[in-house]
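Subject: Sanity check before I submit

Could someone independently write out the structure tokens for this chain? I want to compare against mine line by line before I put it in a report. The sequence has 292 residues.
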Amino acid sequence: MSRMRFIDAAKATYPVSRLCRLVGVSRAGCDAWCRRPPSPRARADATLTEAMRAIHATSRQTYGSPRIHAALCAAGTHVSRNRVMRWRRAAGLRGCGARRQVRTTVSDPGATPAPNLVQRQCDVGEFDRVWVTDSTCLATNAGGLYLAARRDACSRRVVGWALADHRRTELALEALDMAVRERCPHDSGFVHHRDRGCQYTAGAYQAALATHAMRCSLSRSGNCLDNAMAESFCATVKRELMPAAGWPTRAAARAAVCEWIAVSYNRRRLHSSLGYRTPLDCETAKAHHQAA
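---
Independent answer below. Compare away.
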């Protein structure tokens, strides 16, 4: 901090003359500095800070420096990431941090294992060729609310989801049915990748996969990285949406999650794995490229 800025910050508490003597500047010089208009750099920094505040507010106070920087560049404001980081800290803008994870996967030791068809290479560069799936428990004051989601591995779009106060096979089937209605996959090589949860190895769920000609892929036992793409979505829900103390009711949680997935996550949220684009932008750009 410069001497003049120190005087300006402390003049509400101490006499200006005493502050000038303390830091070794003249009173006339201090008065001239106060009358001087802000420099172009100072005005640019103020404008940048206001733009960052707006982006941070739009993201529900979840964006950190990388996504704020990407949003600024997309809007035509080209600045360095270090400058964004510096002024984000000065403005007190904080992204959301990770939360403790609760294990919700319960496997069936008697189920017939399926092969791992993706081997951590979920994104094959085409839409609706690989779906990844996972479920998680969201906290409410009325008890847990379980979320099951199906995510396209290429666009990272959540193509189907369901919420219930249980994690039985019916919840997984409801999410699968929504995804099939929305996307209508017909490729015989379609892969459905999942963890070892018993709701996915149940006979009813396996029959549904066979009906839609989906090839079943299963994560290896004890290897969380095999289904990391799906698990990262569940972690994002808790980190960016769920209140610290949970929702007051299951109905409130259901409304918030459905709105967030359909509007914010799929259409507005910038994904680092997509080059800081939204899933909708990614799919639109690929559709235009294929039509050209």
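---
OP: Matches mine. For the report I'm noting this point. The CA atoms of residues 143 and 250 lie 8 Å apart.
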